Amino acid sequence: MTSFDTPKQDTALNYLWWVVSIMLITLGLMCIKDGWLATIPLVIIGTVINPKSYDHILQKINLSDPINLRMGITLITLVSATYTYFNHSESIAIEREAEIVRQKQEHQAQLRAQAEEEKRLRAEKSAADFKANKVQIISSLETAIDSRNIAEAKRLIDSYKEFSKDEDISRLVVKYDNAIKEINNRMRANELHQRLRTIQPSDYIDAISFYKELSILEPSDPSYKEKAARFTAIEQQKRVADLEEAGKMAERKAEREAEKLRIKQIESQFSSWSGAHRNLEKLIKAAMNDPDSFDHVETTYIDLGDRIRVHTKFRGKNAYGGVVLDSTTAEFDLSGNFIREIN
């Protein structure tokens, strides 16, 4: 006890160290399962720092009560024990995980070995059963196939498939496969007949496909090939008719476009403001005594196919200065070039 400690303080401090000691020992014991390396320093230091042990040690080495040393030892122990605990617990966890993986692998190996053994025993039993009852097995399998009892036939084939090299089994496996193919073909043929009953008359392509497939599924019926050929001919005729109609539509469209261009070419010869034919107006003015007196009245035209005939009424001054109403008619090509005057 230092010169500054009172008996009351010393008693309280001892109680505190007893609590710390018990806590360290308890903590160490709790670490045994997951990190037992941390248990050793915690239990040792917890035992050393309790007041009774610590005072006895100090008396043996003839030292005073260095409280700071005990606190330092406790703190260092806690830090090192914590570090040791986490490292050791992590190592234990890794070891446990490895042990679990190893046990799992051993269990799987045992299961595989057990399965192989069971397979071997079944094979031996099946071989003995097949050898003893071959005639009955072959008869049952052939009866199942002939009666189209596919489930029973499959069960027997699966049970004795390891004897596929046996001549009788091999022959019946081929027979079974042919029976399955026949059943599937019959089901497909029924489906095609059902679809043909509901097919639209215009669905030539589907009808051709269905009848061609039926001719393969049921080759004994020649009507399927005949119907497929008939529908093929109808489809070809329809295709030709469609192509011809498409060609006619294209021609009509080209004619309409050409007509639009032709009308546009003709209309471009006339003034959009007065309606006068521009080139005819120039010819009229060139022949007038007073071109400035030209006054357009009305212009009409007749479409003659490769040319137009234009008739224009106009007013203008004559040689005496009087304003008179006159008219003229002339023909122009589609580009507006003058052809001739019509008297």
Descriptors:
343 residues; alpha+beta; Dihydrodipicolinate Reductase, domain 2; flat; disordered N terminus
What's the Cα radius of gyration?
58 Å
The biggest sheet amounts to:
4 strands, antiparallel
Measure the end-to-end span.
153 Å
Q: Strands of the largest sheet, in order across it? A: 1-2-3-4
Q: Report the average pLDDT across residues.
A: 83
Number of separate helices? 9
Spatial shape: flat
Tally of DSSP β-strands: 4
Secondary structure: helix percent: over 70%
Q: Secondary-structure element order, as H and E?
A: HHHHHHHHHEEEE
Structural class: alpha+beta
Low-confidence stretches: 1-6
Provide the β-strand percentage band. Answer: 5-15%
In a few lines, what is going on in this structure?
The chain has 343 residues and is of the alpha+beta class.
Give the secondary structure arrangement, pairings included.
Blueprint: H1 7-30, H2 32-48, H3 51-61, H4 67-146, H5 150-159, H6 167-198, H7 204-217, H8 223-267, H9 278-287, E1 295-303, E2 307-317, E3 323-333, E4 338-342
Antiparallel strand pairs: 1-2, 2-3, 3-4
Helix pairs in contact: 1-2, 2-4, 4-5, 4-6, 5-6, 6-7, 7-8
